[in-house]
Design brief:
This protein has a single domain, classed as Flavodoxin domain (Rossmann fold, 3-Layer(aba) Sandwich). The longest helix has 20 residues. About 40% of the residues are buried. The chain is an alpha/beta fold. The chain contains 8 helices and 9 strands.
Amino acid sequence: MSKAVAINGSPRKQKGNTAMLLTPLIQGMKDAGYDVELFYARDLKIKSCNCNNMYCWYKKPGICCLKDDMNLLYPRLREAEILILATPVYIPLPGEMQNIINRLCPLIKPLLETRESRTRARFHEDVKIRKILLVSTGGWWEKGNFGTVVRITEELAEDASVEFAGAVIRPHAFLMKKDGKLTKDGQVVIEAARKAGEELAQNGAISQETFEAISRPLISEEELGRIYNDWIKL
């Protein structure tokens, strides 16, 4: 059975907007036959990368000198064909999520190459990851607010010489619910997220139509601005 690992970096874990988008996507992948293992960054005790001599590259390639919960993730990551990084937009990422991304370094071979005038590398041979997908939610209106987290994820994929499977993004995600319940628009987004997971598992890619169904505006930019400004006045 094909495997995927999803890491939810939201401090709110299963109660956050990121989980609201990620959960149906994972279900779609499972329905299509994938084995998906979900981790919450907030539940993991992971130190920041503080090795000055690149131990995992030059002393013991592939081995991290730090002993913490990354040692639970490394074997799962080596067996997964798809890595899903799920995060809300902070400035730019929640701290726990950034630590995990930094600590992926031991999975990458200490052999550099140049492609299109950029220095790149590759995962070790025992790492099966072939695609990295971003799932992200934000509170602001525009897709452009996701630019930094998209670039971080895309660069990670390119640095490791694997496919960036795209960015499943949901602007102003909080509007998917009203009084704690999904709106009709929210239900449409949830179904599109499930379809995205199914497409990724079955076809190896998510269609542009599905990406757009997930991220389509739920309200005008002017209306959202008034909502935020009214909150500030309160």
